């Protein structure tokens, strides 16, 4: 995935009542701030950062291709992460129209590995696939919601988990109307903190289109180091594009998180 990342953790993620959260999600009811204890733009999730493949599974040379991460919770339905301005939570079917608006935008999809979505059903299927994948520990995708008005701004994801190496990839997408306001940095920083903190990952990777300079700056701001270039790795339609590979280690994340903590709301 192409993406971004950075800091914060313990005590700032919430495990709401499993029973109440499951009931809410089953009814497609969005959890309200009252349920919480507290509490981009565009990166390719491999070009999925290229945002993680929207309906991705494990890939590449993972040492355990069938590895399912064991989260400290029954499923992602109990996971809510918060920052100063944002709530990150699992998407429900009722979010599909807003999700479709974001990923049907050619501007948002410019640096992805797939074309803009053409049908609302793609959003519905993505949300349902995310539910299954998260409950099985395959990936975590959270909607990025602006707390002030509850508007869905985009998504951020951890995926391609490798158990032996304690490694994962991160990706995100942000609605064009939300670009340039620091939301991507804020959301990804929080997800990185969760990955390096609660999940105890050692390395998080990102893949972006090298022409996506805003995404590159965002990654570097959070401590990612550019580690390689894969030429003409993706072809979308008749357009070829390269992939820039970035990596962030837990040690580097911890060293620079003092500069990033303001983005995580702590």
How do the helices and strands line up, and which of them pair or pack?
Layout: E1 13-15, H1 18-26, E2 79-82, E3 86-89, H2 96-103, H3 120-135, E4 140-146, E5 152-162, E6 167-174, H4 183-196, E7 203-208, H5 213-221, E8 225-236, E9 239-249, H6 250-260
Parallel strand pairs: 6-7
Antiparallel strand pairs: 1-2, 2-3, 3-4, 4-5, 5-6, 7-9, 8-9
Helix pairs in contact: 2-3
Structure write-up:
- It is globular, with a radius of gyration of 17 Å.
- It has 266 residues and is of the alpha+beta class.
- Residues 1-68, 71-75 and 262-266 have low confidence and may be disordered.
- A hairpin with a 3-residue loop joins strand 2 (79-82) and strand 3 (86-89).
- A nine-stranded mixed sheet has the order 1-2-3-4-5-6-7-9-8, with helices on both faces.
- Helix 2 crosses helix 3 (120-135).
- It is built from six helices and nine strands.
- It has one domain (13-264): 3-Layer(aba) Sandwich (Aminopeptidase), CATH 3.40.630.30.
Briefly say what this structure is.
The chain is α+β, with helices and mostly antiparallel strands. The protein has six helices and nine strands; from the N terminus they run βαββααβββαβαββα.
